[in-house]
# Entry
Amino acid sequence: MRFVVIGFYFLLGRFVEGSLDFLEALRRRKLTTPPTQAPRNSRSARWRHHRQLPCQLDRQSLLATKLVLDFTGASELAESLKGAKVVVIPAGVPRKPGMTRDDLFNINANIVKTLVEAVADNCPDAFIHIISNPVNSTVPIAAEVLKQKGVYDPKKLFGVTTLDVVRANTFVAQKKNLKLIDVDVPVVGGHAGITILPLLSKTKPSVSFTDEEVEKLTVRIQNAGTEVVEAKAGAGSATLSMAYAAARFMESSLRALDGDGDVYECAFVQSDLTDLPFFASRVKLGKNGVEALISSDLQGLTEFEQKALEALKPELKASIEKGIAFVHKQPVAA
# Structure
């Protein structure tokens, strides 16, 4: 089984720090260790990591820590994608202080469109993991490209929102003095600002929160990305934590493809849970992608959560429509 990580800026040939962090996160999760790895703190080791992306990895070799294939530049894009079962797209530019995810739209929208066109031509049956921001718009862009190519399967297109879950779990565990491994907070809506809605009332194990705790935790989870961008003061964005979250979602996809019948993750997907065409929620993953949308998480919401859900819809709707309109204005390559 093969998967591809498209981790640098194809159009300009620039490498993106997030690509390095993604591979490092995979290594830390004992999925892979690059075969040419130099000592841990070696600058040459970090550069070789960069040079290996986008990389096509064989799952058995991942588990045996043996094989990493490298492809460089737009001329090798098609070859890198052939035979892939999962394609991960973190390519793009990171946020800088003062930027919103939407500020990235004009740059990253073109990147995602170009790469998804290549996926449609070379591995149309692959799971597609979209990480490039703004996810609320780039996932609809990918969907429209795949539709125009005649290969759209809504069950296999995912906006990776796992980072919101990782942050929610972490903050709740810290607040309530729980073991992080035991905490699970479903996060619904989208993947930017107020569209990120942690359902704290659905936290497992069951815990109680004051109204003040709910409001503060919700805002912190929504703004956690901005918190990191500002802390780095222009030196980067939340690349390592995003890499960890992407590696987690990748591992879940591989488990599902291998036939594991108990795989659940939150993701931004085509959905009928609300009146919006795309929505992040918990989903059950299977060999063919999304097997079920977990609607029960949206039942029995608190008054705070219900109001927040209604409040996020206009912004999320506008972001989705912006992505769709972008593709309709830009002809898809034959």
Summary: The longest helix spans residues 303-329. The chain has a mean pLDDT of 82.
